[in-house]
Amino acid sequence: MGGGLTGLLLARELALSGVEVTVIERGKLAQESSWAGGGILSPLYPWRYPEPVTALASWSQRFYAGLAADIQSQSGIDPEFIQSGLLMLAPEEPNEALSWGHQHDVELQQVSSAEANAIEPQLGIESDGIWMPQIAQIRNPRFLQALIKACEGLGVKFIEFSPVEQLIIQDERIIGVKTSADAFRAESVVVASGAWSQQLLSTLGTNLEVKPVKGQMLLYLAEPDLLQRIVLVEGRYVIPRRDGHILVGSTMEYSGFDKSTTDEARQALQAAAEKIVPALRNYPVVNHWAGLRPGSTDGIPYISQHPKIANLFVSAGHFRNGVAMGPASARLLADLILERDPILELYPYKINV
Ligand SMILES: Cc1cc2nc3c(=O)[nH]c(=O)nc-3n(C[C@H](O)[C@H](O)[C@H](O)COP(=O)(O)OP(=O)(O)OC[C@H]3O[C@@H](n4cnc5c(N)ncnc54)[C@H](O)[C@@H]3O)c2cc1C
Prior knowledge:
Elements (H helix, E strand, L loop, with lengths): L4 H12 L5 E3 L8 H4 L14 H25 L10 E4 L4 H11 L4 E3 L1 H7 L9 E4 L7 H14 L3 E3 L4 E7 L2 E7 L3 E3 L3 E3 L5 H6 L8 E11 L8 E4 L2 E5 L4 E5 L13 H14 L8 E11 L6 E4 L6 E5 L5 H16 L16
Parallel strand pairs: 1-5, 2-11, 9-16
Antiparallel strand pairs: 2-4, 3-4, 6-7, 7-8, 10-13, 10-14, 11-12, 12-13, 15-16
């Protein structure tokens, strides 16, 4: 249940192992948080996250270039996986950052203001920084479309505009789900419904700490190659796409399921973007949107069997890093469902009663 990145990557993993998969999506596939995000393939300040987030992100980072190439050849759509690197200016904890990089074998260099300018000549801020050359990005809307096509090629069925309203339980097993129009039977069921996952699980009396956290983004249309690197300053970032679009993110708002955009956020994001890259003043803002992240405690997702219903599974709560952690998260849940040796320890992601 859920045709965002979490559901689609899992559908692919299962289909590759010969499982018959149907994805039931409330609206149109791939239009929620997974579409709205920036596609940076790393947590923003990775040393601030607990180890289970790092484990999923690191595994995925090793896997992404190959995954993007496979999906492109299967779908004919280029998801624009680019190793653009990430330059952080005015880092607050350079020592923690450096020792984290050392410990996790991630290339992370402390750079002077002049070195930062050589890495990204468009900077409007003079500051020392941290340069992470290995960090990549993917153009998430394209990645999602490519993934849908690749899944179709593997026989995955998609049912859109069909919100699941009820989980059908019999003798402590789930036997299927109901939408307003239909009922579907299945041997196993997965809740991968992003910020809405708790709504479905609460019908079973299960309480997960997954709540919507709104993030607003702006999009500029500049020139190709104006900006080369992802740049991050005090929580705000700019991401250059290949065709000259530049994304600016993002806000963190706890305002329920409201997805409206605000003038206040637009002004704050625009001011931050034009401070980081003054040349952006010469280009138009062509879009402004909001998405609802599936917020969870410490950013650690649930990748787990339901505590009482053995054939019901949950993959939810990927918060700010669902794209960065996606491939490992999908493989890990597929391992659990198919009773294979898991790629990572499962216990940090387990739902406890
Ligand atoms: C502004 C912003 C910037 C971000 N930037 C990044 C980034 O740079 N890097 C990164 O790694 N992550 C980023 N993220 C986070 C990332 O987008 C999410 O962690 C990830 O997309 C979550 O994927 P998901 O499939 O779990 O949720 P979603 O993409 O929200 O998908 C859930 C799906 O479930 C469906 N659904 C809900 N209820 C039901 C139901 N009852 N029945 C059927 N279907 C249902 C929804 O319609 C939706 O399509 C960002 C997010 C935002 C909002």
